Model the fold of this input.
Amino acid sequence: MPDLSSIPRRSSTPPDEHTRWMQRCLELARLAAGQTAPNPMVGCVVLQKGLVVGEGFHPGAGQPHAEVFALDQAGASAQGATLYVNLEPCNHTGRTPPCTEAVIRAGITRVVVGMVDPDPRVSGAGIQRLRQAGLEVIVGVEEDACQLLNEAFVHRILRQRPLGLLKYAMTLDGKIAAVGGHSAWVTGPTARTAVHQLRATCDAVVVGGNTVRHDNPRLTSHGHSAHNPLRVVMSRRLDLPTEANLWHTEEAPTVVFTGPEADPARHQVLVAKGVDVVVLPAIAPRTVTEYLYQRGCATVLWECGGFLAAQAIQDGVIDKLWAFVAPKLVGGIGAPGPIGNLGIEHMGQALALKRTAWRLLGDDLLLEGYLDRPMNN
Done:
């Protein structure tokens, strides 16, 4: 497990003890951001008489859970201690044994849980098992923050697909590029750094063929994290350049989705470069999202142009938006916008965003918000 010494052990102005240590759990959990799917991000702290005797986080699927690392570090000091964890301990055997049994065997007497696990294999059963064993269990500490941290995990469990996040950057007059197609850079360095950090928390990032041809992106975290997302390209005919940054698969894996009409010669060129080429009967955002769900992805970032963005929204695979607005004007009736035709003819049909928040990043504004989708979508 990575060195945890650089993460502060105590909040500078904690409102109360439970909140303080749950916030610490969330700090620990974030150390594995982008690396745990399809599992959640979980951090754990073992407290004995006000002192930390053990802590840990879940580093990735198939590896021990946060509680195991924290209890191993605590050793005999776990006897009679309090265990904090941001997600209900599991009570079933999957790739790893049940955490509830490890907690009970260690002699923990009180467990403080941030949120109930939405996974039906766990939901409430872990808490019930601990209480049956005589442990005091407190549930719901910093619950909103715990839900937000693992919103993609919760979404994947409840909707059986990854959380779709559409990100774009536009000028003040709503353009993502100039009339000639030039788009670097719409936003400033602070906003671009935020995007690199966002990619580090995602499992996959999707673009269309036009983005590869015109921008030649890398789609990595640019050194802000050791984790890079799976890079995904959608191209029906494989009319893609033979040389591109995305074909350097030693930096990060790349998969290209294409259709039956794909150029066979270009298919072979990409395979020879280490690119995974997947041929689908019908290539669409929904079918690509289903493939990524089966691959275990929890968060899929869409950094595509307006045409593909509109398709993804219409296919119902976009749940959240990151929209950057730069204080620039480029004008031009032919200059592209961030989202293509959605078939909306009057403002009453407009798609509304909920739970919106604005942030200032350098000179640029960032709007974060959620599309209001029914649960069966």
